[in-house]
Design goal:
Blueprint lengths: L2 H4 L7 E4 L3 E4 L12 E4 L5 E3 L6 E4 L9
Parallel strand pairs: 1-5
Antiparallel strand pairs: 2-3, 4-5
InterPro entries: Znf_CHCC
Protein name: Zinc finger CHCC-type domain-containing protein
Pfam family, one: zf-CHCC
């Protein structure tokens, strides 16, 4: 195996969001999707999609809730 083949695995994407609840479909628009799941960042400000391993992080200064 070449050194290039060993390094070819893609890194998981991290997405910064302004809301504590997000929907993830694994980029279905590009044909790579998974069932849409709704994720709640309220507890820690960060969550990983159980299907595609994308990490969603709450933007610094974003407010949780309606207040």
């Amino acid at each position: 195996m070449s050194a290039q083949a060993a390094v070819s695995s893609p890194a998981f994407e991290t997405i910064t969001v302004d809301t504590a609840k997000v929907a993830c479909d694994g980029n279905a628009a590009e044909g790579l999707g998974h069932p849409r799941v709704y994720l709640d960042l309220t507890a820690t400000g960060e969550i990983v999609c159980p299907y595609c391993s994308r990490t969603y992080k709450l933007a610094e200064g974003a407010k949780i809730g309606h207040h």
